[in-house]
Design a protein that fits this description.
Layout: E1 8-10, H1 14-22, E2 28-30, E3 46-49, H2 72-84, E4 88-94, H3 103-115, E5 118-126, E6 137-145
Parallel strand pairs: 1-2, 3-4
Antiparallel strand pairs: 4-6, 5-6
């Protein structure tokens, strides 16, 4: 119940676009973030992005930045942050981004973001530990602009689900 305004989003898949539109459409829904100029997208306080994870995921080919989609984190997300300087950001991708052979890529992104004046932390989380009904390891890169008093020091702690008991008898 936290008040917010969904200012813009980007999605190519038509079914995903329908879901976004049905669940609280943004002011602007771009078709393809890779052709959007960073200055065209509105300024926001919190920028949240999850570019395609297939280039880094074990379920994909593992080509990393050699796959065109693997470069979208730098070409789209980090460029937006560089150009628009949001107060804070959350970038999400496959957990395998933290492992060899991709961890040097992650390290480079973190260094770039720190060089832009952000306090940055990268952490791995399992979505299942945060009441998402799917076991899925993810890498989260969280940053706060130092001059805005934002910090990236606190990662969310896992949620302890409620225990439910059922006692049924057919007697």
């Amino acid at each position: 119940h936290m008040p917010f305004q969904h200012v813009f989003g980007s999605e190519q898949d038509k079914n995903a676009r329908k879901t976004i539109e049905a669940n609280g459409p943004p002011g602007i829904l771009y078709q393809d973030a890779s052709v959007r100029n960073g200055f065209e997208a509105p300024l926001v306080d919190l920028y949240v992005a999850g570019p395609p994870c297939q280039p880094f995921s074990p379920a994909g080919k593992g080509d990393g930045v050699l796959d065109r989609r693997g470069g979208l984190m730098r070409e789209v997300c980090i460029q937006y942050i560089r150009k628009r300087q949001p107060r804070a950001f959350v970038l999400e991708n496959a957990a395998a981004l933290m492992w060899k052979p991709h961890k040097d890529i992650l390290s480079g992104w973190v260094q770039t973001l720190e060089g832009l004046g952000y306090s940055v932390s990268g952490t791995g989380m399992n979505t299942e530990d945060h009441v998402v009904p799917r076991r899925r390891g993810r890498c989260y890169i969280v940053g706060g602009r130092s001059d805005a008093g934002a910090s990236a020091d606190a990662a969310p702690t896992p949620v302890v689900p409620a225990v439910v008991a059922s006692d049924s008898s057919n007697g």
